[in-house]
Design a protein that fits this description.
Largest sheet: none
Oligomer: single chain
Subcellular location: Membrane
Keywords: Membrane, Transmembrane, Transmembrane helix
Order of helices and strands: HHHHHHHHHHHHHHHHHHH
Low-confidence stretches: 189-195
CATH class of the largest domain: Mainly Alpha
Shape: globular
Number of strands: 0
Distance between the termini: 29 Å
Number of domains: 2
GO molecular function: transmembrane transporter activity
Membrane topology: Multi-pass membrane protein
Helix content: over 70%
Strand content: under 5%
Structural class: mainly alpha
Organism: Devosia oryzisoli
Length: 395
Amino acid sequence: MNLRRFLGIYYAYAFLFDFVFAYAIYTALFELEGLSTTQIGTLLAFWSLSAIVLEVPSGALSDHFDRRLLLILAPLAKALTFVCWGLAGGNFWLYGLGFFFWSLGQAWQSGSREALLYERMAHAGRADDFDKVLGRDNAAEGLGIGAGTLLGGFVGWLSFDWAIWLSIPPLLLAAVLAVWLKDVRRVGSAEAAEEPPAGGYLSHFRDAVAEFRRHADLRFVTIYMAGGLVVFELLEEFDQLYYIATAVPVWAWGVLAAGIEGVYALASLHAHRLAGRPWLAWLLPLLGGTLLVIASIGGSPWYVLALSAAYVIVAPVTVLAEARFQRIMEGRSRATTTSSLVMAENVVGVLLTLLFGVLADRLGILPAYGWAGLCMVPFGLWVFYRQRRGVRATD
């Protein structure tokens, strides 16, 4: 299969994996089915914990066996989430089982997908274009989330049950498309296709540790993403509370979420055009933080534009940092190393989410956004200092 066709199938897979109507309504569904706020919080905490536990072992599976197999299984596992929820009828344990399948599906595809993409580009002699295709990958994913959320709101308005069950067909189609996403490490002799890489499953964990020990830039990019840019990602979980505080009408919530994802996708799509400007690695987070401070004024619904711009403005450096992470790696355990980055983001994300929640309880949701923005000042200064010392967060 030529590269252009491969990328078309790959982008369709990325879109379909997150084209989920249930995104728009699942938290409300739990409450309407009789779950308490404590039970909902417990489910979300379990979801985060299971994602952390499953992430790196799943990356090692991808490195040891065929990446394509995990990419086929991932959407099928995620589809089981909505089977469980569709049958739950208020059963707390079935909702928990659904979240486990979601975490499993996410873990199976996260490290595998990015590793497969980089290896396919390198195989075609196009590794230098990886930031461009990674931007398109992020755009496809963002458009899937945005379209699913927007349409899911309308479907959920008719029936929450429909929104749950209609989330399954796109995932089944994604599993079918994954059949054509061949792992280039296994293209060749029959023996290479049938036997896992030498060294054993546990060797991939050692390889990942060795990568981080060997490359200071890899450690720097990991901290850059998991310790800094992750702030913008976790804040999105609280945006509905921000909308309430600034009197954004409920009908506009889904439109806003879809609009943000659409513009974010556009920014990701063109991120490669900003390559070669390492100063953006500290400047854009600082600008994003400034916009968060402005958004925290929150005197009217119009301040949501500043919040939306804060998310979009860091999209290019997110893509460029992810691309640099892949370029730095040299070992054979690419998915395990990538999953280590994702796990770090998840761990820090959980801790910062709890911290932000406490801050919002004590100071209010709007001031909490302002303090999150101010955190970008020491972060930006640290990135500026480290890059002056010779390491880089982006190419």
